[in-house]
Specification:
With 128 residues, the protein is α/β, with parallel strands linked by helices. It is built from 5 helices and 5 strands. The protein has a single domain, classed as Response regulator (Rossmann fold, 3-Layer(aba) Sandwich). Keywords: Phosphoprotein.
């Protein structure tokens, strides 16, 4: 059922990319990875993922900018965005939600909790 759901993981930290890719594949998602915001935007154009796990602090184009561009595009505004960031101040989190994020998870995070939240978002996509 989830195999059709595409998840894009965007982070410039290789260990985070690898562990999240493993987790999401184990859950049955079709996974794409990007190492920075501009690479993410290229993949979004081609693959149109349903869910994006998005780091904020990245080279070239940061996560806030990627989120803003997605939410301003009629073609992509349905994409669910989950920020995964070490930026855990109230104003950072508020900015993420103001830009249109569906979820904001602070690093470090529990993988079990993250997977549960992603599965809940995906369930909403399938049943909605």
């Amino acid at each position: 059922m989830k195999t059709a759901i595409k998840v894009l993981i965007v982070d410039d930290e290789p260990s985070i990319l690898m562990s999240l890719e493993f987790l999401m594949k184990k859950e049955g998602y079709q996974v794409f990875i990007a190492r920075d915001g501009s690479e993410a935007l290229d993949i979004i154009e081609k693959e149109v993922p349903a869910i994006i796990l998005l780091d904020i602090m990245m080279p070239r184009v940061d996560g806030y900018e990627v989120c803003r561009m997605i939410k301003e595009s009629f073609r992509f505004q349905h994409i669910k965005i989950v920020f995964l960031s070490a930026k855990n101040k109230e104003m950072d989190i508020e900015k993420g939600y103001a830009l249109g994020a569906d979820l904001y998870v602070s690093k470090p995070f529990s993988t079990r909790t993250l997977v549960a939240k992603i599965n809940a978002l995906a369930l909403g996509l399938v049943s909605g």
